[in-house]
Amino acid sequence: VGELSTGETLQLSSAVGTPSLGTPAMTTTLTEGTDPDKVAADKRPTQYRIDVATITEGKLYLGNPTTGTGVEINATKNTIAAADLANLFFQADGGANGVFDGGVAIKYVAIDEDGLEDPTPGTIYLNPTNIPPDTDNSSEEIPQGETAKIPGLGGNDPDGIVDEYVVTQLPTGGILYLGDPATGGTPIVPTGSTFNPATPGTETRLTPANLNNIYFAANPGTASVPFTGSTFKYAAIDNDNVIDPEPATVTLTTPPETTGGKLPQRRESIPMVVRSSNTASPNSPTPPTVRSISVIPTFLVPARFKLQRVKI
Hints:
With about 300 residues, the chain is mainly beta. The chain has no helices and 21 strands. A five-stranded mixed sheet has the order 1-9-8-3-6, with no helix packed on it. A four-stranded antiparallel sheet has the order 2-7-4-5, with no helix packed on it. Strands 11-19-18-14 form a four-stranded mixed sheet, with no helix packed on it. β15 (about 175-180) and β16 (about 185) form a beta hairpin.
């Protein structure tokens, strides 16, 4: 079992490490197995085979890569002599996100002089010396031309504390401020391409208390770049100067528009009932007839209505 951080190299059999070479010590050193039926006095297995598919978040070397003597263990070179087990080094590169998250479990098996492999592989567990902090996502609705405080900003560090925050990407369509711009707030400067968490540069460093005082001034709709919604990113930095490898996103939106005005109107056709002029006599067995006609009024009405037919 060993612990290391991004960029560090760990000798898997070393209980003391070599700080000058960036090689920390193993928590539990890698030791050789035994071959109980081996005739020779040296009971070590003859070889070891490394399961290269289990090598993640870094590279495994035979020899120290920091001194230029390391040879990478890969699919074509995955079997080493028993004496070389003490010369294995792991260099953490962080994998896809650039930060060594740990949870690495490299498996290897002993091979005896008859070529038989141990049916129960050994496992080398590698964990991070420091777990990166995590930053909170947030959102806020801001009308064009107005200024609002951004809520919900923050973060945490699983194995320490968050010391600072930095903005890694500014929003568009407005200006992000530390402090209310109406009372002297200053525009926030983001990190640059050469940003180093351990070495402050031109970027604005935000304390946890500062997060309660972040404002966004949205451009009006008449501006050359009107505010129509945007995002910005920020990241936490812990007490070991490790930055969150996946900055949080703050989403800024404009409120929905309400359409004013009168109710929609439409032209209606209104049926009219009239009595026919050929009304029968009271003694006639034939009742009077009723005819219907439709007229189109010249006015607009706000809604549809009906006139009931009346029996005459």
